[in-house]
Specification:
The complex is a heterodimer of chains A (249) and B (356). With 249 residues, chain A is of the alpha/beta class. Chain A has helices at 26-39, 58-61, 74-84, 96-102, 104-112, 153-156, 162-166, 183-201, 216-219, 223-237; strands at 46-50, 65-68, 89-95, 118-123, 126-127, 133-134, 172-179, 206-212, 241-245. In chain A, the strands form two sheets. Chain A has a seven-stranded mixed β-sheet with strand order 2-1-3-4-8-7-9, sandwiched between helices. The radius of gyration of chain A is 17 Å and the shape is globular. Chain B is of the alpha/beta class and 356 residues long. Chain B has two domains: 5-201 and 212-239, Thiamin diphosphate (ThDP)-binding fold, Pyr/PP domains (Rossmann fold, 3-Layer(aba) Sandwich), CATH 3.40.50.970; 243-355, Rossmann fold (3-Layer(aba) Sandwich). In chain B, helix 1 runs parallel beside helix 7 (147-164). Classes of the chains: A alpha/beta (249), B alpha/beta (356).
Chain lengths: 249, 356
């Protein structure tokens, strides 16, 4: 007799055709979010806001209600969804370019207003879908297709620190930065997302989880080397941790 | 629900706001800009008082995207703005159109280009009717001419938005927005449209729904746009609206919309009193434009005189509709000076002299 020991979360599409590059962390993030939707019994009340970038194809993966936001406007769209349907569970899924470059205004205002939504921001320090251009989070010295000699602070300025900025928003209830570079960190990321989701369920305010993620194709690294880069190069610039927690107060 | 109607003295912008409440608008998102601020100020009090949503957005870009979010859940929702700020909304407008979701945008035009000033203007006919967002889409556009019609067409805007799952513009100008006059405020007269077969409300007991515009196959994208235009064809068949005055036997037919049509109406009456055979053709739906209807009325006329508070924007649709059946002339002023009936009558007389 067969015993089922492992299965797909219920909100993952049957027979979905994953189009992410080998070694990309998007798939892991999407999976652990789906696991949490099951664990917290949220599947049937969730409305997801997708964004522009590699995050745009959520409908290929999730069997959930999804609205596609224009580039950078996910927090504004999420505001409209949640304000019109306050009993629904609403999260955005965005890249760092979407969240912190073109959408920085909408992101900060959504957090400051304390919208009862959760923003998931995948930070891979470049514009992945368009071929690896400089992002707001590209670190000093990092080579991209628009900083071929490495990001020079005199020319391109400094990277945006997403969680640090978000943490000063009074409306934010829970803000944390995590990583997917090991099974230990994946477990921790899931815990952080769970806390963020719970802060929304408990109406405590806006929440943001920034996830350091690989982009092996544009980083021109193997999946293993890409995870190593996160630990060695990104951790010092973007320290992991909880930046704001109003959930226990 | 009891049917009520009361005669009230109302400012145009307040008429829109009150009608939106009566129409069942549940969410308003906006950002301040003159000459439409009374709408947001009024709703900031009256919406929360009814347990509904008023939200001042951080920008017009955010406001239109909040509207997109609320519209995706099938909620009756609107924004209002003006000219240069409607320009900022164009990307979101294109998304709402592509997504087949219902939303109402009130545009109270001011004089441009760019910052211009808060004077009345009709300089955003192109912006509204021809679109400013990307790709093939249309915006159903209603152009009221009185405070009473601000009520009538705000109701209709909500109804048509729901009926066709499309974006509807109420295109007014600073003159109409700021003007105060008596009007009858009555209950929302249209049926409610069921949206349970498409709106996002959490995938309970059904597969997830996706509302979006990205299509990675040429076949699918083309099919989506063709479907959109099938819907537009139905709107064209059903919803064209226009009014005429002495248009049948006129030698000169004036074309004008919105507040200018109202001033032109007074000029036409004065002309008739003076024995001049002048008529008026006033499109109320600017898209869909009453092309065939104008063609019919224009045929056999000595002159079509298009009058607008701009440098000639509807003029292009007028010329296209008239299709060479009559000579078309234009009279307009671009920035803030609205016409008097006497001024228009003088222009009509001048044009009549020219015909001799």
């Amino acid at each position: 007799m067969e015993t089922l020991v492992f299965q797909k979360p219920s909100s993952i599409q049957k027979d979905c055709n994953v189009t992410f590059c080998p070694g990309c962390d998007h798939g892991v993030a999407i999976r652990i979010i789906a696991e949490l939707l099951d664990e917290l019994n949220l599947v049937e009340k969730t409305i997801v806001v997708s964004s522009i970038g590699c995050s745009v194809f959520l409908n290929d993966y999730y069997n959930l209600d999804i609205i596609e936001a224009p580039h950078g406007r996910a927090l504004a769209v999420a505001t409209g969804v949640k304000r019109s349907k306050p009993d629904k569970f609403v999260f955005t899924y965005q890249g760092d370019g979407d969240f912190a470059s073109i959408g920085l205004g909408e992101s900060m205002h959504g957090l400051s207003r304390g919208e009862k939504v959760t923003a998931i921001c995948i930070n891979n320090t470049n514009y992945g879908m368009t071929g690896g251009q400089m992002a707001p989070t590209t670190i000093i010295g990092q080579k991209t297709t628009t900083t071929i000699n490495g990001r020079d602070p005199n020319l391109q300025g400094y990277p945006i620190k997403i969680c640090e900025m978000a943490s000063i928003c009074d409306g934010a209830a829970f803000v944390a930065r995590c990583s997917l570079d090991s099974s230990k960190e994946i477990e921790n990321t899931k815990k952080m997302i769970k806390k963020a989701f719970e802060s929304q369920i408990n109406n405590q305010g806006a929440s943001l989880i920034e996830i350091l993620s690989t982009c092996p194709t544009n980083w021109k690294l193997s999946p293993q080397e890409a995870h190593k880069r996160i630990r060695e190069e990104l951790y010092p610039v973007f320290p992991l941790g909880i930046y704001k927690d109003k959930t226990s107060k | 629900m009891t049917k009520t109607a009361e005669k009230v003295l109302l400012k145009g912008n307040h008429a829109i706001a009150k009608a939106a409440i009566n129409a069942g608008c549940q969410c308003y998102f906006g950002y301040p800009i003159t000459p439409q601020n009374e709408i947001g100020e009024f709703l900031s009090v009256e919406m929360p008082a009814r347990g509904r949503v008023f939200l001042q957005a951080e920008s017009e870009v955010a406001a239109i995207n909040m509207l997109l979010g609320a519209a995706s859940t099938g909620t009756k929702a609107m924004t209002s703005s003006s000219s240069l700020a409607i320009a900022l909304m164009q990307e979101g407008i294109s998304y709402i159109a592509a997504d087949n979701i219902p939303a109402v945008v009130v545009s109270v035009m001011r004089a441009g280009p760019a910052l211009g000033y808060i004077f009345p203007s009709q300089g955003d006919y192109f912006q509204t009717v021809k679109g400013g967002g990307n790709g093939d889409y249309k915006t159903l556009t209603l152009a009221p001419a009185t405070v009473q019609e601000m009520i009538d067409y705000t109701y209709k805007a909500f109804y048509l938005a729901q009926k066709y799952r499309t974006i509807v513009f109420l295109l007014a100008d600073g003159l109409l927005g700021q003007m105060m006059e008596p009007a009858v405020l009555y209950d929302y007269p249209y049926e409610e449209i069921d949206n349970s077969d498409w709106a996002l409300d959490g995938a309970k007991g059904r597969p997830g729904r996706w509302i979006g515009s990205i299509h990675r196959s040429e076949e699918v994208l083309e099919k989506k746009v063709l479907e959109l235009f099938k819907k537009y064809d139905i709107i064209k068949q059903n919803e064209i609206e226009y009014k005429t005055l002495y248009a049948e036997d006129a030698e000169i037919l004036i074309t004008a919309f919105g507040s200018v049509a109202r001033i032109a109406q007074a000029a036409v009456k004065q002309a008739r009193e003076a024995g001049l055979k002048v008529g008026l053709f006033r499109p109320i739906t600017l898209w869909p434009f009453p092309e065939k209807e104008l063609y019919k009325f224009a045929t056999g006329k000595k002159l079509i005189l298009d009058i607008e508070m701009n440098m000639g924007q509807m003029l292009e649709d007028v010329k296209m509709s008239v299709s060479g059946q009559a000579k078309v002339e234009f009279y307009g002023r671009p920035a803030g000076f609205y016409f008097t009936p006497e001024e228009l009558l003088e222009e009509i007389k001048k044009q009549m002299e020219g015909l001799k």
